[in-house]
Write a structure and sequence with these properties.
Order of helices and strands of chain A: EHEEHEEHEHHHEHEHEEHHHEE
Distance between the termini of chain A: 39 Å
Strand content of chain B: 15-25%
Number of strands of chain A: 12
Shape of chain A: globular
Largest interface: A-B, 45 and 49 residues
Order of helices and strands of chain B: EEEHEEHEHHHHEHEHEEHHEE
Number of helices of chain B: 10
Helix content of chain A: 25-40%
Oligomer: heterodimer
Radius of gyration of chain A: 22 Å
CATH topology of the domain at 1-31 and 41-91 and 216-261 and 272-325 in chain B: Rossmann fold
CATH architecture of the domain at 1-31 and 41-91 and 216-261 and 272-325 in chain B: 3-Layer(aba) Sandwich
Shape of chain B: globular
Structural class of chain B: alpha/beta
């Protein structure tokens, strides 16, 4: 499609990762999900092309053939640096953005071909919490309207009971229902994030996509919101896809961690496993760089090099220009995700060698 | 050890229509040659205004209303605007969170760097260019000659921050004030910047004030920590002592709020409530309303005490018995 793509096994035949979960059907799974962004030609480029200039369309492979299974009640942490496609993936999971190719299954059924009634239910079942508590709330609506609008529109609550319903949602998110006639600007960042959470929970979702939901908050407020997420998980049996660049937060919250680099999943494993035995050199580098309170006066080292532009990612393994263990094959072929230990997947050519 | 900078009872207030905001209220600390001081606090704690005050950069309606800022023995608060200009950039430099606050988007990097050199020294343009190139090499920018001719928008975020640091280094200042310089950067890029900064402090004996909300970054970098809350330093001490045995309940709460591997899956020890508005601070200890140890004594203003050598706190009920954090 985008040209210059390395030959690889067709996605349809890719082995389906099971994560050692037996015969359970995942609540949500992705198979070969990709998302491209294209920049349409402007007038000058169209003219130049007509005159025979060799101008290629700019294509960003934000998410590149991702397979992922998330089971009910699980908290999956999705980690990566800017431009790795983690937010794009989250938006596709939440149903805000359609994938360019690939399939998203909801409880084992293709979400794109559900009958209308079920499609709507499936859509409501996945809700999203956004990073910016300032930009994600309509400043001209009162808090009560922000929270109550969706359940009313979708007919989940009769109009007569809406007041009481909104009060309950606010209380559950740790807000005083007395504030429901206020506007978002009258709240602090942490409280606004609670409004966003109350709004998402008001339609009774089973699955929350949290995209950097605590990144904009102060440490003491961040702890309050993280605790709220954990309480809600217990109370409502929620499943989370928790997207963050903060490994400390992800480690604290997640059962399983998925690490992305330039649109691809490079490693996926249970949280303890990733932090105890990271397999991919990128994961290892990332973990080495996480500042921790327990690390005093240490010598910082830093992974070499910059994060490459997703417009022109390096061929083969995307990480090879920065990788200390890069081999000739890494420049040519993209390593597939394969199981290196039960439930632990990693995409690195180092694992091709016989075990030493 | 002679202090590079000594701040005594600094007060910076903002005179707004809604009232007086005491953004920095009676703040004292000192920093020695080649030392790294971590100034830690949450939004609105006054940590950035403290940094701006040292450089005389507090804009109206704010101004420094009291205290002394002794830089190598000279009180900066008594300087005229012209004298200030000679100190800024040459003796004390600042690195901002957003490198585009330092960089002019419409000028090439070389123009900006040469201008900075010539602002304080009478050297030829050729010599100034050589200095600029050398500074880029120091902060680890590859192919410096080519990069000198580039514009800021042609750099990535991490590279821009390196250029901003290179500009701060041009005059080999004795003190650098860094205000959250890695907060907007990715983890691997943050690691690279911290590496360069650490190396420079060690090699050139530059003192560094690192302003941040991130205790974990300070843990790896600083010699000493000042924890600020509502315009005051509530706890100060060597980094190991403060992080391993915090005395102030706020410091303890802050450390407990940071997710770490020890408390995986458990509830974080959260601090209830939120930071108070500086416009309507109640009398007494500002942390009183959120503090688990607060009682009637806290209605009075806690004075600065030194319960242990090298430690300073403002609290009536510190965690003096050694407790495991």
């Amino acid at each position: 499609m985008g040209g210059g793509e390395e030959a690889s096994a067709p996605t349809a035949g890719a082995p389906v990762p099971t994560h050692g979960a037996g015969a359970r059907t995942p609540i949500l799974s992705l198979r070969g999900v990709s998302r491209e962004f294209r920049k349409p030609f402007d007038l000058a480029a169209r003219l130049a092309r007509r005159l025979g200039a060799d101008i290629r369309e700019e294509v960003v492979h934000a998410v590149d053939r991702v397979d992922l299974d998330i089971f009910a009640g699980e908290v999956v942490g999705l980690v990566g640096e800017s431009g790795c496609g983690k937010s794009t993936l989250g938006r596709m999971v939440a149903g805000i953005l359609p994938p360019t190719s690939g399939t998203i299954f909801w409880k084992g059924r293709d979400r794109a071909s559900l009958p209308p009634g079920e499609a709507k239910a499936a859509k409501l079942a996945v809700q999203m919490i956004f990073q910016d508590p300032y930009a994600s709330l309509n400043p001209r609506l009162r808090v009560g309207e922000i929270i109550g609008e969706a359940p009313l529109v979708h007919g989940l609550v009769p109009a007569a009971e809406l007041e009481a319903y909104v009060d309950e949602q606010m209380r559950r998110a740790g807000l005083d229902p007395a504030f429901k006639r206020r506007y978002p600007h009258q709240f602090s960042g942490g409280q606004r994030q609670r409004i966003g959470i109350a709004r998402a929970l008001a339609v009774g979702p089973e699955f929350l996509v949290c995209d950097e939901a605590v990144a904009a908050l102060d440490v003491s407020i961040q702890a309050q919101i993280l605790n709220l997420f954990m309480d809600l998980r217990r109370e409502l049996g929620l499943t989370y896809l928790f997207i963050s660049h903060d490994l400390g937060v992800v480690e604290h919250l997640s059962d399983r961690v998925v690490i992305m680099y330039l649109g691809r999943v490079v490693e996926s494993a249970p949280a303890e496993e990733v932090f105890a035995r990271p397999n991919h050199p990128y994961t290892q580098a990332l973990l080495a760089e996480v500042p921790r309170i327990s690390n005093r006066k240490r010598a910082f080292a830093g992974v070499k090099g910059e994060i490459p532009s997703p417009l022109a990612p390096p061929a083969g393994c995307h990480f090879h220009p920065r990788c200390p263990h890069a081999m000739p094959i890494c420049r040519e072929a993209a390593p597939p995700l394969r199981e290196v230990a039960p439930g632990h997947l990693s995409a690195c050519h180092l694992n091709d060698r016989p075990a030493v | 050890m002679a202090a590079t900078l000594e701040v005594r009872s600094l007060r910076a207030h903002f005179f707004t229509k809604a009232g007086v905001v005491k953004a920095v209220d009676d703040v004292s600390f000192s920093i020695g040659e080649g030392q790294v001081l971590g100034l830690v606090g949450e939004s609105g704690s006054g940590k950035s205004v403290t940094g701006f005050s040292i450089l005389g950069l507090v804009d109206p309606p704010g101004r420094v209303v009291g205290g002394e800022i002794l830089f190598k023995g000279r009180d900066l608060t008594k300087l005229s605007e012209e004298e200030w200009r000679r100190v800024r950039g040459r003796d004390i430099a600042m690195i901002f969170q957003d490198p585009m606050m330092t960089l002019n988007p419409v000028l090439r990097i070389d123009t900006q760097m040469i201008e900075t050199v010539l602002a304080h020294e009478k050297v030829s343009e050729k010599a100034a260019r050589a200095r600029a190139r050398e500074a880029l090499v120091q902060v680890g920018i590859p192919s410096p000659d080519e990069r000198l001719r580039a514009y800021p928008h042609q750099f990535s975020g991490g590279m821009r921050q390196r250029v901003a640091i290179a500009i701060a280094l041009l005059h080999r200042p004795a003190l650098i004030i860094a205000d959250e310089p890695t907060t907007a950067l990715d983890v691997t890029i943050q690691g690279q910047i911290l590496y360069e900064v650490q190396k420079l402090c060690r090699e050139m004996g530059t003192s560094l004030i690192w302003i941040t909300h991130d205790l974990a970054v300070v843990a790896g970098l600083a010699d000493e920590i000042c924890v600020m809350y509502a315009g005051r330093i509530v706890e100060k001490g060597p980094v190991d002592q403060v992080l391993d045995a915090p005395l102030h309940p706020y410091t303890k709460g802050l450390i407990g709020s940071v997710p770490s591997r020890n408390v995986r899956g458990q509830k974080l020890a959260q601090i209830p409530g939120m930071t108070p508005s500086l416009l309507s601070l109640p009398p007494g200890c500002a942390f009183r309303a959120r503090c688990p140890r607060a009682d009637a004594a806290c209605l009075a203003e806690p004075a600065l005490t030194r319960p242990r050598p090298g430690r300073e706190i403002r609290c009536f009920h510190p965690h003096l018995v050694d407790e495991v954090v």
